[in-house]
C-alpha cells in the first residue's frame, strides 16, 4: 500500500468512497473540489493506493487558525473502503496527516466524529485520540438572503 497526495484524476474513486461515508457526491463535483483544494497549502488530501490506480481510502485535513484557539490541524474527512477495513489503512492515513501537521509546526490534530459513526470511535482511540467533548451541531440555510 502507498499513501500519496490525491490527484484530480482520483475524483471518480474518491466520489465512490464518499458515498460509503454517507455523502453521495458526483465525480464531477469532487473533481472541481479537488481542483480548488489541492493547490491550497493549508489543506491536504491523501489517498491509500493498494494497487496501481486503485484507491482504498482517503483523508482530508486542514490547518485552522482560530482566534481563541490558535493554529491546529483538523481531520475533515476520512473513509476506507468497506472491504478493506481492519488492514491498517485508516491508521496509515491518519499518521500521514499527523506527519504533515508536524512538518507545518502544528502540535495538535483534532477530529470531530458523529456519534452515529460508532466504528470510528474505537479507531481514533486506538490511534491515540482522546475524546474531549460532545457537541450539538447547528446549521442554517441562507435561502432567503
Ligand atoms: C473508521 C475507519 C476509517 C477505520 O479504518 P480502518 O482502515 O478499518 O482502520 P485500521 O485498520 O487502520 O484500524 C486501526 C486500529 O483501530 C481499530 N479499529 C478499527 N475499526 C474498529 C472498529 N470498528 N472497532 C474496534 N476497533 C477498530 C483496529 O482494530 C486497529 O487497532 P490496533 O491498534 O489493534 O491495530 C473505517 O472503519 C471507515 O472508513 N469507517 C466509515 C467512515 C468513518 O467512520 N470515518 C470516520 C469519520 S470521522
Topology:
Layout: E1 2-5, H1 11-21, H2 27-37, E2 43-51, E3 54-66, E4 70-80, H3 89-103, E5 109-111, H4 120-126
Parallel strand pairs: 4-5
Antiparallel strand pairs: 1-2, 2-3, 3-4
The chain binds coenzyme A.
Residues 21, 78-80, 85-91, 111, 113, 117, 119-120, 122-123, 126 line the site of coenzyme A.
Overview of this structure, please?
The protein has four helices and five strands; from the N terminus they run E-H-H-E-E-E-H-E-H. Strands 1-2-3-4-5 form a five-stranded mixed sheet. The chain is an alpha+beta fold and 145 residues long. The mean pLDDT is 96. Helix 1 packs across helix 2 (27-37). The protein has a single domain (2-126), classed as Gcn5-related N-acetyltransferase (GNAT) (Aminopeptidase). The structure holds coenzyme A. Coenzyme A binds at residues 21, 78-80, 85-91, 111, 113, 117, 119-120, 122-123, 126.
Amino acid at each position: 500500500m502507498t499513501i500519496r497526495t490525491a490527484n484530480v484524476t482520483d475524483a471518480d474513486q474518491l466520489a465512490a468512497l464518499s458515498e460509503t461515508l454517507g455523502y453521495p457526491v458526483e465525480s464531477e463535483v469532487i473533481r472541481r473540489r479537488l481542483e480548488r483544494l489541492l493547490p491550497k497549502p493549508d489543506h491536504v488530501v491523501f489517498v491509500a493506493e493498494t494497487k496501481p490506480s486503485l484507491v482504498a481510502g482517503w483523508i482530508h485535513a486542514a490547518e485552522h487558525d482560530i482566534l481563541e484557539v490558535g493554529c491546529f490541524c483538523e481531520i475533515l474527512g476520512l473513509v476506507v473502503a468497506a472491504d478493506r477495513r481492519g488492514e491498517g489503512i485508516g491508521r496509515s492515513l491518519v499518521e500521514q496527516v499527523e506527519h504533515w501537521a508536524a512538518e507545518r509546526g502544528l502540535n495538535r490534530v483534532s477530529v470531530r466524529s458523529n456519534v452515529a459513526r460508532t466504528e470510528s470511535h474505537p479507531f481514533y482511540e486506538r490511534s491515540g485520540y482522546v475524546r474531549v467533548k460532545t457537541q450539538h451541531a447547528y446549521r442554517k440555510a441562507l435561502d432567503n438572503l
